[in-house]
Amino acid sequence: MQNIRIRAAGILVRDGQILLVRHEKNGKSYWLIPGGGVEFGESVEEALTREYREEVGLPIQVGQMVLVHDSIPPNRHRQVLNLYFLVTAEHFNIKVTPDAVLRDASFYPLEEFPRMTVNPDVKSEILEGLKAQWPEGCRYLGNRWKD
Prior knowledge:
There is one protein chain. By secondary structure, this protein is α+β, with helices and mostly antiparallel strands. The chain has one domain: Nucleoside Triphosphate Pyrophosphohydrolase (Alpha-Beta Complex), CATH 3.90.79.10. It has helices spanning 44-56, 123-132; strands spanning 5-11, 13-14, 17-25, 28-32, 35-37, 60-71, 80-89, 102-109, 139-143. The strands form two sheets. The chain has a five-stranded mixed beta sheet, with helices on both faces. The mean pLDDT is 92.
């Protein structure tokens, strides 16, 4: 039996810019909302706080959960449940901690966000939510697998 991986991600917006981390994997470069896997015995909030500290060196406050979606490939060899939260920070001094796939992190203008390669591709839902201030509360998006 395989386990479902749970990934917590934190949407951090400052002065019309969104924080993204750049990954390189299998010869591809793409952007993600910062976050990572929840470890056994760790709450989702603890995991997101830890991942932000590890990836970009920022202490954060975790707010409302706004998006949920699955990532299940057609061959079903893995499954990730993605949980997106709004987060805030008191300072924005990013200190990237490169690892096997993490290469960079930076704030990008929300106007550029739609044209960026972001995985999973939830850019339009994030932009809609930010613009409308998440009137629907948390929204389930279904399976968002993309090769």
